[in-house]
């Protein structure tokens, strides 16, 4: 069977779709799966070797109506015929892609937004008890299989992701150059795209100082985008922990994934790197305040990850900016001891 998956973004959302594709392959071992993803996120899709082809979606070119780049994408989208197209995004643009692709079966969520369900001839209603994005995606895949007269597998293993050798080599070079070998390796993500999800540097500093006190051999490295370099450097400068390395802005997406795979754990806010680590089966200790871990927390066996919850009464507010206008609201009402102990349990 030839299938097309439409899930252009975001980083975490793409990773949350991998288990659904594992459901498809468990029932259809010979299925050939292509995937539409934003061009800058295509490397993440390639982590999953069972994806036959990635069709890069020129997101910025579409916003600028740059037809020189849009036309090749449309040609690639329509050049093959598919037995079915599954839209896991559920927005206007993904609905249009689903409708434009050559197929007789167009499947998506019945509660998709921006009119996307108008593109489907098989709209799946989600049970209200499903909360996490991964579980919703898996349900869509299983319902699609049933609609085709195919019985889903009773048990589906976690997706097996493979890091390209080039990514691993770059990560190993950074580890050697920054003297990060020789002890448990802890990754730290102290920033996030939403300001409300970026817990205060003070919280990270206190937790990391306690971790180093109880595990002197731990190696510490901070991740982040160029925009997040300053926050990561503030944590480094104020924590005053020997050997702590700020690698924010110094990795591409592939090298970041390989560095996370080399780490024993990740201490982080709710962020894209958290989902990369979880997909690679790296234990996460994740801070949650403005968002709900039942919906977007690190996915995996219950004992693998640990969620540090704020006690702020506004949580989860789902606001990009703190509704209390207090950048310390989440972290001031969370336990430093709790976070440090959860990290130590995963690195020692």
3D structure, described in words:
The protein is of the alpha/beta class and 348 residues long. The protein has 2 domains: 2-147, Glycogen Phosphorylase B (Rossmann fold), CATH 3.40.50.2000; 165-347, Rossmann fold. Helices cover 38% and strands 17% of the residues. The chain contains 14 helices and 14 strands. The strands form 3 sheets. The chain has a 6-stranded parallel β-sheet with strand order 3-2-1-5-7-8, with helices on both faces. α2 runs parallel beside α7. It is globular and about 60 Å long. The N and C termini lie far apart (46 Å). The mean pLDDT is 95.
Low confidence ranges: none
> Considering the protein shown, what is the CATH homologous superfamily of the largest domain?
Glycogen Phosphorylase B
CATH fold topology of the largest domain: Rossmann fold
The computed structural class is: alpha/beta
- The CATH architecture assignment of the largest domain turns out to be 3-Layer(aba) Sandwich
Total number of beta strands = 14
For the sheet with most strands, the description reads: 6 strands, parallel
Total domain units? 2
- Output the helix-strand order: EHHEHEHHEEHEEEHHEHEHEHEHEHEH
**How much strand?**
15-25%
Terminal-residue CA separation: 46 Å
Q: What's the alpha carbon Rg, rounded to whole Å?
A: 21 Å
CATH C-level label of the largest domain: Alpha Beta
Dominant shape: globular
**Number of distinct helices:** 14
Mean pLDDT: 95
| Helical fraction | 25-40%
Q: Record the strand order, biggest sheet.
A: 3-2-1-5-7-8
């Amino acid at each position: 069977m030839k299938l097309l998956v439409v899930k252009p973004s975001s980083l975490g959302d793409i990773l949350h779709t991998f288990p659904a594709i594992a459901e498809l392959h468990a029932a259809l071992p010979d299925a050939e799966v292509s995937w539409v993803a934003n061009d800058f996120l295509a490397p993440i899709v390639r982590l999953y070797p069972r994806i036959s082809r990635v069709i890069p979606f020129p997101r910025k070119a579409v916003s600028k109506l740059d037809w020189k780049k849009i036309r090749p994408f449309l040609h690639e989208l329509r050049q093959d015929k598919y037995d079915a197209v599954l839209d896991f995004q559920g927005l206007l643009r993904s609905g249009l892609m689903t409708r434009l692709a050559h197929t007789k079966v167009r499947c998506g969520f019945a509660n998709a937004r921006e009119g996307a369900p108008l593109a489907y001839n098989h709209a799946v209603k989600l049970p209200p008890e499903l909360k996490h994005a991964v579980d919703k995606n898996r349900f869509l895949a299983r319902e699609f299989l049933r609609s085709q007269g195919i019985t889903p597998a009773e048990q589906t293993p976690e997706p097996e992701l493979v890091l390209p050798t080039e990514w691993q080599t770059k990560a190993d070079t950074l580890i050697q150059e920054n003297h990060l070998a020789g002890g448990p390796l802890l990754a730290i993500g102290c920033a996030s795209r939403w300001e409300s999800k970026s817990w205060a540097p003070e919280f990270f500093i206190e937790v990391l100082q306690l971790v180093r006190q109880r595990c002197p051999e731990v190696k510490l490295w901070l991740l982040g985008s160029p925009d997040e370099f300053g926050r990561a450097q503030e944590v480094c400068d104020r924590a005053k922990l020997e050997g702590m390395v700020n690698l924010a802005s110094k990795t591409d997406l592939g090298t970041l994934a390989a560095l996370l795979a080399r780490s024993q754990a990740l201490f982080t806010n709710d962020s894209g790197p958290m989902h990369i680590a979880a997909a690679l089966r790296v234990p996460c200790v994740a801070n949650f305040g403005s968002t709900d871990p039942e919906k977007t927390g690190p996915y995996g066996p219950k004992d693998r990850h640990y969620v540090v919850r704020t006690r702020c009464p506004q949580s989860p507010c789902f606001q990009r900016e703190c509704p209390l206008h207090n950048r310390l609201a989440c972290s001031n009402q969370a336990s430093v001891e709790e976070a440090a102990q959860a990290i130590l349990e995963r690195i020692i």
